[in-house]
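Collaborator request, handled under Task 6.
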Amino acid sequence: MNVSVAGSNGLALVRPPEPASRTPALRGRSFADVYQDVMQRSGEMLPDQVVHVADLRMTPLGNITLPGHLCYRLNPVALRGLASMLGLRWDKWFQSASGEERAEEVNRRFQRTPGAKKIRAWVDREDKADGVARAFLAPSFTPIDDHRIFERMHTMMRGLVDDYRFTRVEFTDSTTHYTAVHQEAFDLDGELLHPGFHLRNSEVGASALSLDDHWMRLVCLNGLMVRVGGKRSLYRTHRAIEDDQLAAALVIAVGRLPERWATAFAWMQSAKRIAVPHADDAVAAILGDSAEVPKALLEEAQRVVLRDGDLSRFGVVQAITLVAHQTNRDPDVRFAMERLAGDYLAVTPLPA
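Structure tokens returned to the collaborator:
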């Protein structure tokens, strides 16, 4: 049996059913487990190097050398940043120029480029160079690294996050994604929905630090991000911040989630009862203007909403998030699709 539990917002939460139920049990990692991984990953970061561009050199192998004889390989983000900085179309170069020719042209442009760059790098696990460059950034760029966030959460928030399970921890070359949901769920007409948060960050300036309200539909593990009142729980661009200020911002953001869940759940209840005459057109309107969502995923979401036959506002949301979860494999694209679906849900009219 489900056991009702009083939430801090006054709504009834339910404990997940016993294992005999067809509904899968909630699975995920504890905060302590994820914290250890983040700390271990941070240990592979090399000290930032601020270097005048004119002092950089490229080798015929495509690596760059810095003053002091450091040699870095380039990851895809650093390579794109280098090409943009020097005004090069790198893909064509790999097809038509030799390593020596590329190095000669890049070095000529290095010497003609004023100013300095901050270079962030990892340890080179393959031992082919002294490190792997992650990005070329402005010298004043002051990142809020993941390890600082999790250190603050570990010190100040363990009581708040112990009831969450991290269902996704994903890294790209430019972003990190941490999805955590509460162990207790909301019951939406027999479906269990676990509320929580999605933390996205970029240590190389590709995105701000953000914490969004997140919902997971247990039966299919779909995710959904919702902005209550048009605002995210936390959004901060990368600039200097004291540890105490960072801790306070995180405590406030996570602490106020339960009251925000109440509003989002009311939208879901209403959305299940509002029919959408042309659900495939609604999907196109939600995703069509986004440069982050490939056309193939938009078209797949249109097929899914018609195939599944739930032609309500909630059905439109579920079709988009299902495709974001099952068809797509890029965490940044998933982030965009779940956010757009949440924005659509957030304009659902509530009963008078």
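The cover message to the collaborator said: "The longest strand covers residues 191-201. Residues 1-12, 15-22 have pLDDT under 50 and may be disordered. Please let us know whether this matches your experimental observations."
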